[in-house]
Design goal:
It is built from 1 helix and 8 strands; from the N terminus they run αββββββββ. It is mainly beta and 143 residues long. The chain has a 4-stranded mixed beta sheet with strand order 1-6-5-4.
């Protein structure tokens, strides 16, 4: 419902802040880099919302985006291997990185018309706003 405030938005924001803080605390104890959050910018450009996220080190194939009328979910994951083999010495390093973020959107959007691009580590998602008059349903003629 586009015109009604979402009573769970404040709760979602509180949970996101707690996840960020717990992620920062546990970061020093994990062997692999597992980020529970990614920083984003959400800009209102009149007829659309534009979400920008920095995702360095990922490729477009690593990114999974889900959108509905009131939220955007961003997930990305990759695992890279490096190995160096010289005569008597063998070294292998594995690196796994993952990010996840669910954003409540400030306005309802047309999920089916959303688009995204990824260039030089920056993800840009364009979300056309839902026309308030279009959200009232379809008119059915009675004969």
């Amino acid at each position: 419902m586009a015109g009604r405030p979402n009573p769970f938005r404040e709760l979602d924001e509180l949970i996101e802040r707690m996840n960020r803080q717990f992620g920062e605390l546990s970061g020093g104890f994990e062997a692999e880099s597992m980020l529970s959050d990614v920083s984003v910018d959400v800009a209102d450009q009149g007829d659309q919302l534009v979400v920008t996220a920095d995702l360095p080190g990922f490729s477009g194939d690593d990114i999974d985006l889900r959108v509905d009328r009131e939220s955007l979910t961003l997930s990305a994951e990759y695992e890279a291997e490096e190995s160096e083999d010289t005569g008597q010495f063998h070294r292998q390093e594995r690196r796994r990185e993952s990010v996840h973020r669910q954003l409540p959107l400030p306005e309802a959007v047309e999920a089916e018309n959303a688009s995204a691009s990824y260039n030089n580590g920056v993800l840009t998602v364009e979300l056309p706003k839902l026309d308030p008059e279009a959200s009232s349903g379809y008119r059915i003629d009675v004969e």
